[in-house]
## 1
Amino acid sequence: MLDCFFNPRSIALVGASLNPEKLSSVIYESLNSRFTGELYPVNPAHEALGRVKCYPSIKAIKERVDLAVFAIGAEHIPEMIRDGAGQFAGAIIVSGGFKEAGPAGRMLEQELREAAARAGVRIIGPNCLGIYDTVTGLDTFFIPPERMERPPGGGLSILSQSGSFAVTVMDELAANGVGVARVVSYGNKTDVNESDCLDFLAADEATSAVVLYIESVEEGERFVNAAARCVLNKPVAALKVGHTKAAAAAARSHTGALAGRYEIYSAAFKKAGVIELHGYEDFLLACRVLGDNKDISHGRRVMIITDGGGIGVAIADSCVDLGLEVTPLGSSVTRALRGTLPSVCAVSNPMDLTGSVIDRDFGDALQKTLEGNEYDVAIVASLWGPPGLTDNLPALIAEKKKYLKKPVIICTPGGTYTRQREEHFRAMGLPVFFTPESAARAVSFIAEGRRDRWA
Amino acid sequence: MGIEGIERLVKESLSLERENLVEPDAKEILRLAGIKVPVFKVVKDVNVAIEEGGKMKYPLVLKLISPNIIHKSDVGGVRTGIKSPGEIEDAWSEMILRVADEAPMAMIEGFIIEEEARSGVEVILGAIKDPQFGVTVMFGTGGVAVELMKDVSFALAPLDEEAALKMMSEVKGYELLTGYRGSAPCDVRAVASVLVKLSKVVGSTNGLKSLEINPLIVYEKGVVAVDARAELDLLDGYKTASSSS
């Protein structure tokens, strides 16, 4: 059970300090301002932090706490975990100086693992940033807020083996207004690993989608099972970095030479139904499209609606390249739209509403094409040249989307004026992309993330 | 499936500190697993080769057996299209000279004389044990150029025939099997069934690290495994035993 990490009622911060030169001061500030439970600073060097009582040890708290956060030098931590039996259920160890730091560090980590097992304490880390959680207000990321903006609350949860990767992605998501539920940087995973977290997130009501950054998985079969269980409830996407081949020259068969590590991870993702991501841009795209988009597509049939024919065709090409289907309009929808839209419009897929477009045309086209059973998802590509388009368009599309209950992706390429429209779409909870390729790719992720795809 | 027989074969080679099985042993594993292989005999003498060849249907193939040579055709260790006893004799002496030249240190255990399979669509199939993810199977096209073309797909075991068909359909060359440019569609189900068998054999045999068929010739009806290789791992089996404790 990982409740001590994801639903802690009380936290002891070991090494708590107000000294801004210490990493722990950032964690203390964050917890102090946003954590909703009981917070106990622990540091024998202080009697108080400001007006808050500071405890000389965890034991001195005299009450069992759910979670202890360690932001102190590595060497004393195993001993403190050993002595912590019965005093805390879980520990987040952000400190480095373990497995990643040579033979002495490896021994220390071994000691830590044994201490945790004996004390019955679950551990996240060491050598990590820990948890950023908008549900509970837990934030052990020791990067000051002016250097890394915290994303708002949302449905996306992120699991990352790399702390700096998690930090960078969170900063980008915050700048894009994409919300998160829980972010876990698990570092050396001496105890809790990606599979443990997936098991928790599978049943977590606050999480509507999971995106993982993976360097390596040790318990492969367990990972496949945990991910497959999670996929039953919500989309899971993963980026595996490090595409280096196994020593191909030494392989004694073609299978051995071709079965690099990456191919096997890729097969594992496929088996579990995990959406496979390629690179940093994909990771961000997946976060943005899966994050706040709870309307997961039930198929690959894409409707493209634009006021610029060329962009429409470019989007269609990208969709087809990605295995999506840009199916032609049915005859009854065509008839209905011919009666509604101005005669200059090209009533087809992609649909070109042309430069004489007004807001309402987008709304009508979206409603008539998506309300039946012919399409699973729409890409609305609004180019902002036509004078008939106003800043009310995003709200109109959002309203239609709410009624249609299908995913709608915005593609809006352009310069300054266009980029400024992004905010209006975002305010309406619509995911925005700036190129045909990225919009199509985002759609391919939600089409792949549909729950029934292996049924 | 003759798992005991397969395990015995693997154990014998492991006791000789072999890292891979020679072709006749790898084919014997396939036969025990219910995968069709051509009629063949292991021979050590050219007269026996001619005698055994006489009991077979020409054309025949002569192949070298050596635990040190992984890709036989690279060193002249395969001769196809043999149509008479005289040609067996010629092929035999040529092969000995050529291999002495190309791989002078190789240990020669003997030769295979084998009925040549009629032509069909050639594919490669393999199963390998991965230390993290367990048995992984591979399907591909491209024959000897498979490593160059990389037209292959992978899937984790366990897999059934449907999953095998799905992974097969992921490679570009799959169309070669489904009736490309007017040719008759091939027996893809038989290929899928071999993939399932390979994954089961590798998964259930300690010490067998990988098993590969290249090529498997696919016909309108049925398949035949023309060449096979197997990698061994002395520690496999001990590893699984200790990690589960």
## 2
Amino acid sequence: MSKEILSGNEAIARGAYEAGVAFASAYPGTPSTEILENISKYKEIYSEWSPNEKVAYEVAYGAALAGVRALAAMKHVGVNVAADPLMTSVYTGINAGMVLVSADDPGMHSSQNEQDNRRFAYFAKMPCLEPSDSQEAKDFLKLAFEISEQFDTPVMLRVTTRVCHSKSIVELGEREDVPYREYKKDFVKYCMLPSSARVRRVELEKRLSKLRDYSNSTPINRIEMNDLDIGIITNGISYQHSKEAFPNASVLKIGMSNPLPDKMIKEFAKKVKKLYVVEELEPYMEEQIKMMGIEVMGKEVIPNIGELTPDIVRNAILGKSVAFEVPKIPLRPPILCPGCPHRGFFAVASKLNLTVLGDIGCYTLGAYEPLSAIETCLCMGAAISQAVGFAKAYKGPKKNRIVAAIGDSTFIHSGITPLIDAVYNKANVVVCILDNETTAMTGHQEHPGTGRTLMGESTVKLDLESLCRAIGVPHVRVVNPNNLKATEKALREELSFDGTSVIIFRAPCIVRDKSVWKKPLMVVNEKCAACGSCFKIGCPAITKDKSGKATVNPILCVGCGVCVQICKASGSEKCKNVSIGYCSDICSQICRFSALVEKEE
Amino acid sequence: MNFKNMSVVFTGVGGQGVILASDLLSEVALIHGMDVKKAEVHGMAQRGGSVISYVKFGNKIFSPLVEKRSADILCSFEPLEAIRYIDFIKEDGFVITNTVKNFPLTAIFGKIPYPDNPIELLYKFTSKVYEIDALKIALEIKSPNVVNVVLLGAISKLLPFSDDEWFRAIQKKVKAKFVEVNKQAFSKGKEAISF
């Protein structure tokens, strides 16, 4: 069999293929997104972007009941959205195998929190497997389907950013031919009326007990005996860090973390002198091990915040701390791209001194300086609901200056129900749907508003205007946010309207749609008054020279023209000498010496 | 086979091709018959933000992350980003940095300015600091997008892989129509530096 370097996410997709999975669903979310993107390359598997994680979980559950192996993938906070069906699906069990991939994000590289979803598996009484590299990601996914069918339960495959996005060598296998399992009507098993749920509740505990026996015997929980001075119980990526930090220590590698292998843990604890639990985030294993009456060191030394690394593990256990002082330099946070259509909206929102209640997507970056427009970010869809709360309760000085900003994909995910709430309860809110016609932040996935599916088919395109009108929103309008005058006019008018209004700010994401790129702009040096207005829109293509005047980097500029409208001195003009994407000689000189771009007469 | 374990840290700005560079290095290590792991983060850091990618290869690799003060090579696509992650370099490690500056917005608005002599700051951590104007070289072959492979060519002189292995990796990871220009960029980068 051939070997390839795969990311954990690519390996999970390969595992789905090899496991004979026939149905896969997800809503994009870092670090899980590439799982479905890669699954969609296998034509043997039906795959879909669902509007949100609850739907993704439910359609996969439906497919599993209907008779085929099904997978749902989501980021850790997506499991919150899917928690409702999840918690009861463990009662009913499944028919064909079902696996939920929960991709957690310790360190919050791209997330609003770092919740530890092993707690979810424990809470739901659901088996949980935790791979530590790409080979295991593939192998454990296949095993998860076997466990799912053997024990009639959905199974969680819990991965973390460093498993999802790290690459390592994977041996590829063949696709298993999994027979279709016929669905049979079984009211007591599948229809959770209280009378049935009470029956299934008992089954759930019986199953959990059997799963514990399984956990004690499965080879994915394994003891690696070595030097007996230090024993480490560890899981997932922490196993790799521990092996690197303490190559001679004895290790109990936990591959199945719910239920934990209690007998194996007790046996291991007896053999080593000093026992540690090395796990990221919550003391999930540690608490259970301590409840077994075993003396163990865990969060006393291992941090419960952020990611672990080999150095952190080594220093924690040896009680050392090694600090290196890096010179203080400016930060480089992610920023809205040059030409991003959100910039026009934020430029006007800043000018009008609006309080923008934000949501989850690229536009959340509008919170950073110098735009500093977004003030809140909680979870998917919360911008609109928060705005309703503000509309009803806020008594401060910016009473008529509050708007909700939400992206198109996020609106479809969780913004529709709060918009219904706004209309139904007569809230005076302005909802700004920043519609860039894609799911941009996670890498441009399709969604119901794009008119295309994950599998590349064209489909019915959700019409946001009609949807809002059908909900009963009295004022619905569409505006191009790159037109600052129109943007300002629309915002002013809707802010003065007493009722619910929706402004759809529509312009395509410039990374996805390069057809909207225009020739780059340049600054006419002698006209630039160094007023600094154009810096306030936070465009990475505009920099300040030593005299305080603006220069435009023609490699980055896509000619959106927002800065031209901002520029009070009208110093920006279309450059006729440089074309984007290819550097002429002039262009290369500009880039190399950061010199001012002077207009050729 | 007995290989020495090595680790390389790539840093740069989102959109500069850091990820492709680390992919190519991982691929060439696989072709050479080594164990290899690499790590980076996607998502929020996709564009314009600071990017770091770790590649480790050798006999057997456990953690995909590189420890502080342990990297054999730090290859930076931008001088400021070399400083940001300089604490990864081991004492006698090699720093190879592109000289073309990219000013973050925070340098314009924040309190900390872009350092005047960024390269000098690197010498506090290792004496082996090498500068290369990778954009100039890329523009010589009229392809500003191959800065990453120019830098890869430069660091290849410190790595145990043959040109043939590198070209096989490029062949595998790069779109067919860009293979030739990437090979050229690799060779140009290699010529441009001596250690």
## 3
Amino acid sequence: MTQSFRLENIGLINRNKKLSFKFNGKAYYGYEGDTLASALIANGVHLVGRSFKYHRPRGFFGAGVDEPYAIVQLYRNGETEPNIKATEQELFEGLEAKSVNCWPSVNFDIGAINNFLKIFLPAGFYYKTFMWPKSFWFKVYEPFIRKAAGLGVASTKHDKERYEHKYEYCDLLITGSGPSGLASAYAAAKNGARVILAEDKSRFGGTLLTSEVNIGNQSGKEWAESIISELKEMPNVTVKNRSQVFGYYDHNMLVMSERISDHLPKTKKFHPKQKLWYIRAKEVLISSGSIERPIVFGNNDTPGVMLSSAAKEYLKVYGVLVGKNPLIFTNNDSGYETAIEFQKNGISPIILDTRKDPKSEIVDEAKNLGINIKFSYVVVAAQGYKKVKSADIAKISEDKEQLGIIENIKCDCICVSGFWTPTIHLASQSGNKTKFREDIDAFVPGTPKQNETTIGAANGTFTLEETLKNSFETGHRLSKEITKNDNKTSFPNVIEKKSTAHDKFWCVPLPKGKNYKRFLDFQNDVAVSDIEIALKEGYRSIEHVKRYTTLGMATDQGKTSNLNGLQLVSKIENKVVPSVGHTTFRPPYTPVSIGAIVGREVGKHSKPTRKSPMHLWHEKNNAVFVDAGVWLRPRYYKQGDENLFEGSKREAKNVRTNVGVCDVTTLGKIDIKGPDAAELLNRVYTNAWLKLPVGKARYGVMLREDGIVMDDGTTTRISENHYHMTTTTAQAANVLSHLEYYLQLVWPELNVNVVSTTEQWAGAAIAGPKSRELLQKLFPKSDVSNEGLPFMGYMEGDLFGVKARIFRISFSGELAYEVNVESDNGNFMWEKIIEVGQEFKIQPYGTEALSTLRIEMGHVAGSELDGRTIPYDNSLEGLLSKKKDFIGKRSLNRKAFIADDRQKVVGVVPLDKKTSIPEGSHLVKDSNAPLPNPKLGYISASCWSVEHDNPFSLAIVKDGKNMIGKKLFVMSPLKNKIIPVEIVSSHYVDPKGERVRS
Amino acid sequence: MLYIKCPHCGWRSQNEFSYGGDATVKRPELGKEVSDQEWDDFVYNRKSLRGKHWELWQHLSGCRQWIKVERDTATHEIFKTLKANEEIS
């Protein structure tokens, strides 16, 4: 198949490399260097999709980032991606793409019936119509809209590609490699500044690739190439193509997405697909250029109507004709440049110029080439459904209100130029107060808030000579301020054709008796009539008009529609554009893939996984792991076909009858040293700490200043001025920050140092009636008798040559010890305990058994100390010192905290002693009471008591102290359970605490 | 992302720090009798200023020092940073 729209001798594509691709199932070919759009146009394909609301046929409108129409679903290497602009996607061998928002096919789309019902689909249609009747929304409207609408399908598969993040610093970040970007980068780089130059396209040079100019006796393209190759060689310069700076954030941080592999059939091994750059720049030079504006006329969304600059780009960069019978519709000289390119390549265009008698070098050139030019003419409407076939044109009166006799002329494309809109998105994102410039009918950056400067077309400078001059100067000036160097680069001689003023005309009036749709926003199908309705209905703020009509809200962010929308609102409202103001520009400038934003922080990589030194042993011994914060902890050690319930019950039972060992390395540990350490503890904990002797441990509770329990744990006095604090696994980091806060800011006079030693110590809890016998065998040289090492005692011991710390503390209600050794010796300690413990029938136990043991003894933990409870609620009021002040004490006399019926922790047992109680269930007096049934409290933790062999739970219940012995109901609407229960003491095992002291 | 000059380490990105609230709040002395109003002002009541604001940040993933930062809450401009023991002027 030949490419009937491809020219022979023009373009920057590589004609030696043919690439085959498929669009909507049909095979085509293009060349290396094509975009999907240029390759399709070369093959004469102009119908690529359907519009969002009316399902009207959609072609190509632009040639790059501003494209509102040609959005496709891309298939690459077994993956699929929606929302890809055909104008940005580079062609690769085997590329496959499909149209979106069309069903059943792009040629016959059932939703296009909306086009004929469009009288029923005006602005706010969805808001108004589908509200009634209410039940219809879920059953009828929503499913229908969902089937008919949408801009592609997200893949549900795991994304196998890799995305990376990079942090970078530079003196100057320059966004865009057109004339202003190249000149400023060159001047700054020559002056020694560290420069990053970012270009969103694959080719550097911007408009220099398509304009007929001469810089320093070279063509624009040659000059761009020589500058870029020189920049690439400089060590202080980073040059990046396929890289879009899409967001400008606080303190001159910008984010850039680099598409590293999207243009390849397959990502290379060890390469990421995309890379997100976080760039902190001392100065930012915004050289993002400008985007051509459309002129609004009837059926201006028909495939074949496109921006004149895009037509020129397809011709000059890709050697592709967008049509063989082109009509150029312009209000300025830019349209002539496109016409001249057509003429030079053997195609005769017709120019319709809204101006009466423009005089400039460019207009003269067009005249000299014999191009047919009609002055004071406009396109009234495009004709043709799936492609432009002809145009209704007419003469327009001087006041631009009256149309002359309508004529129909044949054409196959209409190239529109309504002058240029500076791309001010980044400047606006940075907080720049933009200003409106009457002479160009557009906003330009005004007063900067951060260190940014906008240059070239983005700043409304449209002549090359002035652009280059400003850009060289700006690059030099900014780099001089940073580097203090003063190397000036010589300014090249520029030859360009002079142009004359544009016409402020932007919208063709409707001829009498015609009701053509005149579109402003091409992606969201917002027409002139929609804005008119919104204003009639009372919407005034441009932000409200935007949201009501969806003008500028599509994935193209209104790059081609915003200004014409503003023109319309200001015309109807009889206001000037600057007083209407523009809507806020928000990042990202172009869509960014979720993968790039997430980077490597996917799944397990989103957080570090922490493992104890005994982890491998647990793995080898069939541990089933559970996430405890970032730690992986054994939940239980599976034997045979045991499930969690059976395994944890066996392990807990063995602790109560023999002895068990549990890995408690994850507990937070803080080393506290200094002469005022005891004083710090005394202020941080609620109980007294000044008289704790060396070699003793004490349980403590710490509060926040608002009286809520923050954490609990034991702290041991290792020596005179040295303490070892333990925290819960979850609160370890917060407690350290808390201590640092008070030491650094509130009580700097205290001479104390704190440091986390969580990772320095491996810990094993040995619990059960046989634990002392085991300990004696582990430490034969130490006296671990009840007298030698009493409850809450501490000693150092020698574990087969390894130094160990031995604490007699208990979390299970049994006689228990905790042994700590340096982390490197953790596994040695563990294996020794298991080995020596065999004769006492030792078994390792996991977190599930650990919970069971603590719940049935009524020891509060994270599920009770949940950031909402005070010491009283947890029956910890006995630990509140009356003699001293401590953090949070003053809050405890708040009215709610001392109420007589204040909530308190209790035990809960089902009356049938069989039914397990779901955690989170509510306690009520009467299970049949009408809703909302007054709630007395909630179940905080549940277990199967191995001591009593029946279910047991802890609950926080209103007036808990008077509830013991009462019969209530547990209700769990989630599990659909109602369980009659009895309230008992929270100490279900050994209430007098005799075992731990035995 | 803010760029904060830690008085101990130099310029660092915001993601190394954690926010710690109003730096002008003074904790009542331990053991001192304070009224409910004074206590509430210390624990709960904050002005939530628009404009210049002295606040605390901790250089959590750095030197772990608490620092004082004068920041404009509307523009994010940072005017000055101080060590914990330096008085706000």
## 4
Amino acid sequence: MDLSSINPLVLIAALMVASTPILLAAIGELVVEKSGVLNLGVEGMMITGAICGFAVAVESGSPALGFVGAAVGGALLSLLFGVLTQYLLSNQVATGLALTLFGLGLSALMGQDYVGIKPPATGDVNFGPLADLPVLGIVLFRHDLMVYVSLAIVAGVWAFLKYSRAGLILRAVGESHDAAHALGYKVVHVRLAAIAFGGACAGLGGAYLSLIRVPQWTEGMTAGAGWIALAIVVFASWKPWRVLLGAYLFGGVTVLQLNLQAAGVAIPVEYLSMSPYIITILVLVIMSSNRGRAALAAPAALGRSFHASS
Amino acid sequence: MKRRNLLAGAALALGLGGAALAGSHEPLKVGFIYVGPIGDGGWTFEHNEGRLAVEEHFGDAVETVFQENVPEGADAERALTQMALQGADLIFTTSFGYMDPTNAVAGKFPDVKFEHATGYKREHANVSTYSARFYEGRAVQGHIAGKMTETNKIGYIASFPIPEVIRGINAAYIHAKRVNPDVEFSVIWVYTWFDPAKEADAANALIEQGADVVLQHTDSTAPQAAAQAAGNVITFGQASDMGEYAPMPRVSSIIDNWAPYYIARTQEVIDGSWASVDTWDGISTGMVKIGDISDAVPADVKAEAEAMAAAIGAGEYHPFTGPLNKQDGSPWLAEGEIADDGTLAGMNFYVEGLTGEVPN
């Protein structure tokens, strides 16, 4: 065992990179669920974003354009879900699951010509002298732009939900769509906007995988990250900063256990491997113990269809 | 309307009768169950190449079907049953974790032939097993890795603690150690065959801790991309050539060549000569191929590696030749003794020198 071979600073930097895809997807899903819509298609939107972003980046040579393409791709796919659930009032759970299957198939089809291609490299943001700071330099100032964008989105979502009027309306729609409707708010429009935002964020998360973290296109490459994102939203009790905490915790334990294995720590590997999931489940259990749905802060209208006549 | 119902009923009856009789004039239906997507660039990709080769070889005489991303375990049983019900005559199940589902479903469909890759259970007369001696290729990789490492740390991304994977680790270690006594192996068990993000994270963890060779026993090309980004790290293509990463980081590869086996077994079903067998072929029959050794490898190392592969193929050299001890120091093979297939097939121990424990 040689723990000295693990550099804690590099580890923290690595966990931020490992957590960013699920963070992006989870913060988007949080907004969707806050508006009262349960979209289980995160996995499908992520993988669609991954291939859209990859294809655009490869064709244009610009990773930045790739991320824009990923957001657009994810949003378009999510709007399919939006139209089905908001206008045609299909069941949200079933439609979300179908969206995942559809996204996986669609991405495999779109990605056929992109297997084995290398995407243009995404550079790290140049902070100049800040990057040379001891400790903080490695941890905070040597990442690619998307890490900072993901943090900015979390802060933005928090401020939007807490302080803005539009955020209040969105929360009202999620708590009681009938009351919001009676007040004259366009429930369906608000929800469609939230769904599109969630899709765009999931797309960005997927593109982060295919353009930066892996970086390549492989079919099915999200490998369940979308489901983790869904769990993290519940884990976070629908609070933006807790989404950040949950995503970094999950990503952190994942990276840590790989590093511990590489260093040959004498803990049985089985426990190390299951630790991210165990810890997530444990926190979920602790947080939900002896509390009702209201205390968990789930939006009251989550998963319910809305029709103006009802 | 009534007449249509009648016709449909008649057609159904005919169809059922036809399926039961399964006349030789109908195309033989060959099914494949895959653990990953066919575009993984590795394991499943090569099995699918084998399927395409069957289609090309037999033309209209054979029809193939496949299902990808089938999880190992209970869901595999459902997928297998469905394929058997759809009239498949021969089904290849291409991952270790399908072993029990394959045997369970085989018991229910005695007329369907099942072929399970990399397993050892043949509980029914209609189950065969087949595998490749990947460890022969691992020995060649170990030789190159031991010669080329400068940090003397070699990283190994392992999937599940099953004999096939453990054999690979042992074979690579023995031959790396032989040419470089200072070499150390770090093994990371990722408990997945296919998860590009996790494979990339594992590769990065190994590289950050000083490994300059990364061997993988997982199916995606993600570790290759991670090594390329890190620079100065070498890798080997796994299951498929992964030639898009040559000459660096990928300096060679193990290529699984299933096509000849799939064609031969399909032909046997057509001829009616198919029987339950256990096939375990290696470099000698071409089931395991060593991918082109790139120019990043010094010429003398390349020549030695090629000579070793040739000797293994000719049956002159066996990668598990004594003297070899088990990890705890107890003797396993005496001087000149060669490991028997039974021990190799069930290998659940590390050889002497490897650190860490084999997970249960």
